Amino acid sequence: MGSADQFAYADDGETPRQVEVGPFLIGACAVSNAAFTEFVAATNHVTEAEHFGWSFVFGGLLPDDFPPTRAVAAAEWWRQVLGADWCHPEGPQSDLAGRSDHPVVHVSWRDAVAYCDWSGKRLPTEAEWEFAARGGLDGSAFPWGDELEPGDEHMMNVWQGSFPSDNTMADGYYGTCPVDAFPANGYGLHNATGNVWEWAADWFHPSFRLRDRRINPIGPPSGTHRVQKGGSYLCHESYCRRYRVAARHGNEPDSTTGNVGFRCASDVSRG
């Protein structure tokens, strides 16, 4: 786990260390809007964004005539949008038309856990997620190797151009893309990096040193933030080169934004 490359962030605690994980299953793709729709229809689950009545949306996805809304002070491209939620990704004027195969977003950690419980699965631990995302490669920056665009081929959905004002969409997408849009890694996972951040089960702490278990590490026993992995369509090397396998981020369990989703894992039956 972790990385010693020059792009590691000191506050991410990416110090490389050897860990072992037992056998597990993990989704080839992030949970899609279609799958989450089935969950809501079966359970009448109300997401935390719906409870709050708003969520954070990337300003570049809003119509030019969208009324002014509160922005995040340190990241003005994030806008508080009333009525934004998983089925209205950019607010009440938006819907999921044409995006059934895109990852569900505006879901909190608790929403993700609720879905996993319903489906008989669970969130992957950070160690499991990173092991799977590496696709069998040892120490590589990305799920396919160390080159961002090998042979000038785009391998994931991230920002190209000048962030946050100009996205050339050289990879074909401005916001999210289908959950299986890019080639799978060596273990069959699509979009392990880029597209949307993915929730992991662990509590977040900047240092790996708190993880005293070498086998199946699970992070600290408590905390204020949960781990997110993989980066998103908004990542750009000018400010956020976190679209690497080792990169990590922490966010409050009730946080919801338009670039965070999840994929499920489960234990291997020994029957």
What's a concise summary of this model?
By secondary structure, the chain is of the alpha+beta class.
Q: What this model shows, in words?
A:
The chain is an alpha+beta fold and 271 residues long. Helix content is 13%, strand content 15%. The strands form 4 sheets. The protein has a 4-stranded mixed β-sheet with strand order 9-8-7-10. A 3-stranded antiparallel β-sheet has the order 2-4-3. The longest helix has 11 residues, at 33-43. The chain is globular, with a radius of gyration of 18 Å. The protein starts with 23 loop residues before the first strand and ends with a strand. The mean pLDDT is 93.
**Total of helices:** 4
Major sheet summary line: 4 strands, mixed
DSSP helix fraction? 10-25%
Count of individual beta strands = 11
- Computed over alpha carbons, the radius of gyration is 18 Å
From the spread of the alpha carbons, the general shape counts as globular
Give the helices and strands as they follow along the chain. EHHEEEHHEEEEEEE
- In whole angstroms, how far apart are the ends? 30 Å
Beta-strand share of residues: 15-25%
Mean pLDDT: 93
Largest sheet, order of strands side by side? 9-8-7-10
| Uncertain regions spanning at least 5 consecutive residues | none
Quaternary organisation of the protein chains = single chain
Q: Kindly name the structural category.
A: alpha+beta
